[in-house]
From TrEMBL:
The keyword Oxidoreductase applies. It holds the Pfam family adh_short. This is SDR family oxidoreductase. Belongs to the short-chain dehydrogenases/reductases (SDR) family. The lineage of its organism: Bacteria, Bacillati, Actinomycetota, Actinomycetes, Micromonosporales. The keyword Oxidoreductase applies. Keywords: Oxidoreductase. SUPFAM superfamilies: NAD(P)-binding Rossmann-fold domains. InterPro entries: NAD(P)-bd_dom_sf (IPR036291), SDR_fam (IPR002347). Signal peptide: none annotated. It comes from Micromonospora thermarum.
C-alpha cells in the first residue's frame, strides 16, 4: 500500500528536506505552506506525483480546506513553526511575540493533529511526527531562556505529543516528537549541519514499524530500531 504523507511548513528548511526524503522513499506526498504559490513551487521542484497545498496552521478554515482537498493522510509531519523572540528573556520578551509563537507552534500543531489524526485512528494506521527542539525541559533537557516563548512552545509540543500518544495507544497510530538538533535554516543560518541530515532520521520516525515507540521524544542519537 502506498502511504500518503503530508508535511507542514514544507517549502524550506527541515520541512522541505523531510519532504524530499519521503518522496525519495516512494511515498505519496503533499507539501504544504502558508503561501499557495510556495507550496506549488516546492511540489514542482520535488518532482512528479508531489502535490502542493496551501495550509496555514493558525487558520481553521485553511486547515479544514486542506483536509478536504488532500483526503486521507497516513503520515503527518508537523514541522511548521516560528522563532520570533530570540535574544530576549522571560522578563523582557514582548508578549505579543510570545502569543504569536504559541499560536503557531503549539496551537497550530494542535489544530492540525485534531484535523488529521482521528482519520488515522479510524483506519487503524498512522504515523505522526512533531518537530520539537532541544530547548525544552522534558526528557532531561533544560529550557533555554534566550528564546522563552519558543522554548515554552516546544515544551508544550512535547506534552501534546504525550497526550495524543496516550489517546491513540493501541490503535495502530504512533505519535512521537523529534529533536532535529541545531540545523542550518532561516531560523539559525549560522549553523553548519544541513537540514538533509536530520531529515533522514525524521523520515525514519515517520515510517516506523508497528513495533516502534510512541509518545517519545526521539533524537538522532536514539534512532528507533
Amino acid at each position: 500500500m502506498n502511504r500518503h504523507a503530508l508535511v507542514t511548513g514544507a517549502n524550506r528548511g527541515i520541512g522541505r528536506a523531510v519532504a524530499a526524503e519521503l518522496h525519495a522513499r516512494g511515498l505519496a506526498l503533499t507539501v504544504t505552506a502558508r503561501d499557495a504559490a510556495a507550496a506549488a513551487g516546492t511540489a514542482a521542484e520535488l518532482g512528479p506525483g508531489v502535490r502542493g497545498q496551501q495550509l496555514d496552521v493558525t487558520d481553521p478554515d485553511s486547515v479544514g480546506k486542506a483536509a478536504a482537498d488532500v483526503g486521507p493522510v497516513d503520515i503527518l509531519v508537523c514541522n511548521a513553526g516560528v522563532l520570533l523572540d530570540a535574544g530576549t528573556g522571560p522578563l523582557t520578551a514582548p508578549l505579543d511575540l510570545v502569543e504569536e509563537t504559541l499560536r503557531v507552534n503549539l496551537l497550530g500543531t494542535w489544530r492540525v493533529l485534531q484535523t488529521f489524526v482521528p482519520g488515522m485512528v479510524e483506519r487503524g494506521w498512522g504515523r505522526v511526527v512533531v518537530v520539537s527542539s532541544g530547548t525544552t525541559a522534558e526528557f532531561g533537557g533544560a529550557l533555554f531562556p534566550g528564546a522563552p516563548g519558543y522554548s515554552l512552545s516546544k515544551s508544550g509540543l512535547n506534552g501534546l505529543t504525550a497526550l495524543v500518544a496516550g489517546q491513540t495507544a493501541g490503535t495502530g497510530v504512533l505519535v512521537n516528537a523529534v529533536n532535529p538538533g541545531r540545523v542550518r535554516t532561516r531560523m539559525m543560518p549560522q549553523m553548519t549541519t544541513p537540514p538533509e541530515v536530520p531529515a533522514r532520521f525524521i523520515a525514519d520516525v515517520a515510517t516506523l514499524p508497528a513495533s516502534g515507540p510512541t509518545g517519545q521524544f526521539l533524537t538522532e542519537r536514539r534512532v528507533p530500531q
